[in-house]
Amino acid sequence: MRADGELPREEYQALCKQADDEIARLEQELKALSPAPEPQTVSSDLKAIYDFLSQKVDVHGARLAPELIDQFVEVVTPFADYSYRWKLNTGCKKSKEERTNLMAVSEKPLLTFTIDFETAKRYREANKMPHQFRRAAWIDLTVEVYL
């Protein structure tokens, strides 16, 4: 409606602010109704994640377990030439202010690994993909994983 000119800019901004205020109020109500997780629960969740990752992550193999990608990777962000940051989804919904900006990360990554030519070649062969790159033209990819 705003793009079509049916709604003046000021009215649109007022409606957006009203909607944001309502969302914030409802999130506060939801937070008040939901019990805070106990530290033991949080640490057991982290242990479950660590155990799962220990079983599923083999960065030297031809494949990364598809369950890992499907279950945990929320977003992949390229941040430099041939470097990527993976944001893992731990199942906890965070507020707008708490969401991680993967372009300006202040914490250390949970895991860092490199995809070299041999790893990419094994992956390509394991998945019956065509020959699309040459060793001389290959540049290693760096992946950082964050919670």
Describe the structure.
The protein has a domain of 87 residues. By secondary structure, the chain is α+β, with helices and mostly antiparallel strands. Helices cover 41% and strands 17% of the residues. It is built from 4 helices and 4 strands, in the order H-H-H-E-E-E-H-E. The model has no long low-confidence stretch (mean pLDDT 74).
Summarize this structure as a short list of keywords or feature phrases:
alpha+beta; single chain; 147 residues
Task: Give the helices and strands, then pairings.
Blueprint: H1 9-33, H2 39-56, H3 66-72, E1 73-80, E2 83-88, E3 111-115, H4 117-126, E4 141-146
Parallel strand pairs: 2-4
Antiparallel strand pairs: 1-2, 3-4
CA radius of gyration is: 21 Å
Mean pLDDT: 74
User: What is the overall shape?
Assistant: extended
Secondary-structure-based class equals alpha+beta
State the helix count: 4
How much of the sequence lies in strands comes to 15-25%
Report how far apart the termini are: 38 Å
The residue ranges in which pLDDT falls below 50 over 5 or more consecutive positions are none
Task: Offer a concise description of the structure.
This protein has 147 residues and is an alpha+beta fold. It contains 4 helices and 4 strands. 2% of the residues are buried.
